[in-house]
Design the sequence.
């Protein structure tokens, strides 16, 4: 049996509906929200600011610290136990590594830039939504950045490759599934996050990256528009 | 063949392609990659001859030499005072730079400035590691008694001040309040009448909110005239606001 048509009638290269907004949290130095389908991420950036405990300080440049957190009521199934978990710690780490290649914090020795990503609602692709929101929030915070970061998950559902899997596809039971979150720097054409849960063939992986590149270009347009909207000159 | 892909005063986002070709030079906030110039931050495009640079629109205050800033005393030690600067780094006010009075060895420094005092001072030096030295020696530098401090976006300080101080002097004239604007995005306001002090606060917040809207001076003048019920002198006619 093969996967012929996507469960929610999208085409295989089509993402869920995206909404992005910048400056949603007034008290933060930079903030953004990014909604893709039913997955919704808020990111707030604080800093550069003083970093304590002191042993974490780097006298050569500032550091980036990310915190990914799913709210207890965010999941469609069980309640998420509040506080950190193995999963959230891993995602915080990969988010940090996905964002740091674009960020230049050389001007802020001993300081920290804190990024808090909160997810009030999730349905697959939450780390990608988090990265997209965080990169807009960092830009909004006025930091030195070479590029924005766009992320999308591309996956294999049975014998097909599909962009931006939703939960029903991730949980597809009639064939093998692979979920591959990719983060890209759209203008520089580089990849800053590549993870895989499941198995794909080598040739398929190349195809996955091509699809991710196209999807990221679309996401970049949306991010760009959201940022410009906030600073529009009337 | 050089192609300029943006106009002056366009808002650009990180990674946006600004120029194709070698005829322009990358200025502040931009970088060259191969033959192209890209934006390296969120900012407003400004062209200065053949140089393309970006004007900051957001971000925290970063200390610069000769800036006049409003600080809060957070610690007192043997040789001076530690100040909170509204930036990621704290500043040091040494005894020598604090006053022209003679301070005896071992004197209690809290008699000059104590923890919690707000002062207006000037940055004399910033090192690569962002150690900040400030001085109290200079016109207008003093301890701020009473009044209130309103935080604003650092990048909008020039708008609040206006050309040659036109905006701030207009607010002073209308509200009769004493106002000091620190480059670090803190504004100290003290009025004789509480209502006027609050009006000054509201005006400054209005300027911050509408800083990017054209015809700012006129709108603020109108707002102040309406609120106070008086007619203000022609500040905005003398100094034309651009942008």
Sequence:
């Amino acid at each position: 049996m093969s996967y012929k048509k996507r469960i929610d009638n999208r085409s295989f290269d089509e993402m869920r509906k995206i909404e992005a907004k910048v400056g949603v949290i007034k008290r933060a130095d930079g903030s953004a929200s990014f909604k893709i389908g039913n997955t919704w991420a808020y990111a707030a950036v604080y800093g550069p600011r003083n970093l304590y405990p002191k042993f974490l300080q780097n006298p050569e440049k500032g550091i980036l610290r990310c915190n990914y957190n799913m709210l207890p009521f965010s999941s469609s199934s069980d309640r998420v136990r509040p506080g950190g978990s193995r999963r959230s710690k891993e995602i915080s780490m990969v988010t940090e590594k996905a964002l740091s290649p674009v960020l230049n914090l050389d001007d802020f020795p001993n300081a920290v830039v804190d990024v808090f990503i909160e997810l009030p609602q999730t349905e697959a692709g939450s780390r990608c939504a988090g990265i997209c929101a965080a990169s807009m929030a960092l830009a909004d915070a006025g930091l030195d950045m070479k590029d924005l970061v766009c992320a999308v998950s591309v996956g294999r559902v049975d014998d097909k490759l599909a962009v931006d899997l939703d939960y029903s596809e991730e949980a597809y039971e009639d064939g093998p599934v692979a979920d591959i979150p990719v983060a890209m720097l759209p203008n520089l054409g580089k990849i800053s996050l590549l993870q895989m849960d499941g198995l794909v063939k080598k040739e398929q992986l190349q195809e996955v990256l091509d699809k991710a590149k196209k999807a990221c270009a679309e996401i970049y347009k949306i991010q760009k528009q959201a940022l410009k909207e906030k600073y529009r000159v009337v | 063949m050089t192609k300029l892909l943006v106009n002056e005063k366009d808002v650009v986002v990180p990674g946006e392609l600004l120029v194709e070709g070698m005829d322009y030079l990358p200025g502040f906030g931009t970088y060259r990659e191969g033959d192209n110039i890209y934006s390296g931050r969120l900012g407003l495009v400004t062209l200065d001859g053949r140089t393309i640079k970006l004007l900051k629109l957001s971000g925290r205050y970063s200390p610069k030499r000769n800036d006049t800033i409003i600080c809060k005393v957070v610690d007192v030690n043997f040789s001076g005072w530690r100040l909170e600067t509204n930036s990621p780094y704290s500043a040091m006010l040494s005894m020598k730079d604090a006053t022209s009075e003679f301070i005896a060895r071992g004197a209690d420094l809290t008699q000059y400035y104590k923890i919690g005092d707000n002062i207006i001072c000037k940055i004399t030096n910033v090192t690569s590691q962002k150690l900040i030295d400030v001085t109290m020696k200079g016109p207008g530098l003093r301890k701020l008694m009473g009044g209130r401090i309103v935080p604003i976006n650092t990048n909008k300080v020039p708008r609040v001040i206006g050309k040659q101080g036109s905006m701030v002097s207009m607010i002073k004239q209308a509200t009769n309040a004493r106002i000091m604007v620190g480059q670090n995005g803190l504004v100290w306001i003290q009025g004789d009448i509480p209502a006027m002090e609050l009006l000054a606060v509201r005006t400054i917040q209005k300027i911050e909110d509408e800083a990017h809207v054209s015809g700012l001076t006129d709108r603020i003048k109108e707002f102040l005239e309406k609120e106070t019920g008086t007619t203000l002198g022609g500040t905005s006619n003398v100094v034309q606001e651009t942008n």
In short: Confidence is low (pLDDT under 50) at residues 235-243 of chain B.
